[in-house]
Amino acid sequence: MVSLISSAILPREILAAATDNYTWIERNNGLSGAGGVYKIAIDPNNANTLYALLNAYGVYKSTDGGSNWSASNTGLPSGLAHNITTDPSNSDTLYVIIDYTIYKSINAGVNWSQSHSGIRSWGINNGIRFITVDPNDSDILYAGTIVSNDDGGVWKSTDAGANWTQVAGNDLGSGCDNDIAPLCH
Predict the structure, then answer these.
(1) Distance between CA atoms of residues 121 and 30, nearest Å
(2) Which of 11, 78, 126, 130 is surrounded by the most beta carbons within 10 Å?
(3) Tens digits of per-residue pLDDT, 97-131?
């Protein structure tokens, strides 16, 4: 078993700790992008399959526990990365947020398409930043903003991201800031 972390100090660095001697080893072969590794997602059914989200360079995939990486970006724009998550019930389904827009892959990151019908986004201050999949029902997703006294909120999908409905936020009278943060920790 290997523990992985992305380094906030060293750009593009993914570090792995072997559990037998706790030595940190770089695992960056094939990674590129000055924006650095923003998030890592692990396939819930195969710990050797990893996804790294790099700012401005999209998604990179490893199938050997992080030793080697390759770009997995067909259909994704180059832009500001926010979040990546896997479907706990289906290893082929992934969600990523780039430039405040949700993208979905149903083939383990080979291709991506937009998946945000019904979500209103107002740009950099309060666009979509987080997404999570209900661990008991993969058709139920929650996505949300982090806002500062602006419109924003939490959206829910009951059809695996095809359509979304706002369930919380300033537009609905809740007046809450950092709407989605409690769902993503």
Answers:
(1) 33
(2) 126
(3) 988 889 999 999 999 999 877 776 655 555 788 89
Average pLDDT over residues 11-24: 59
Query: Rounded to 5 degrees, what are φ and ψ at 158?
Result: -110, 10
Nearest to 100 by CA among 76, 74, 121: 121
As beta bridge partners, residue 40 has: 52
**What is the token pair recorded at 41?**
């997602």
CA distance 128 to 96: 11
In the sheet that holds 101-105, the strands lie side by side as 81-87, 90-98, 101-105, 113-114
Encoded tokens for 135: 């661990």
Are the C-beta atoms of 104 and 91 separated by less than 8 Å?
no
What's domain 38-184's architecture? 7 Propeller (2.130)
Greatest Cα pair distance, the chain, in angstroms, is 53
pTM: 0.80
Contact 126, 147 (CB under 8 A): yes
Which pLDDT score is estimated for 7?
A: 44
Which residue ranges make up each domain of the chain?
38-184
The strand pairing partners of 83, in sequence order, are 97
